[in-house]
Amino acid sequence: DERHQLYRLNAEGQVVARSEVAPTDMIMSLAVSPDGRTVASGARDNLVRVHDAETLALLAELPGHTSWVSD
After folding, report:
1. Are 27 and 42 in contact (CB under 8 A)?
2. What is residue 52's DSSP assignment?
């Protein structure tokens, strides 16, 4: 299975939210928005996925990249 998991931890290191993401290839980059509300991941499947940082719910998949998303 090629699924990856995102975890949100509290200050004690306990998992408070978990989300499975299913890129068709390896995640190459991860970024948190300046306000801390969203997390974006880029993968070798040429997609950017945007997640809510609190719940880790998938907010959007952004296609259109012609190569790996690594920056």
Report:
1. yes
2. E
Query: Rounded distance, CA 59 to CA 34, Å?
Result: 17
pLDDT in tens, 36-53: 999 888 877 788 889 888
Residue for token pair 């090629």? 2
**In DSSP terms, which residues pair with 49 in a beta bridge?**
41, 61
Distance, CA of 22 to CA of 37 (rounded, Å): 21
Please compute the mean of the pLDDT values over residues 18-29 and round it to a whole number: 71
Whole-number CA gyration radius for the chain:
12
- Pick the closest to residue 29 from 55, 62, 1 (CA basis): 62
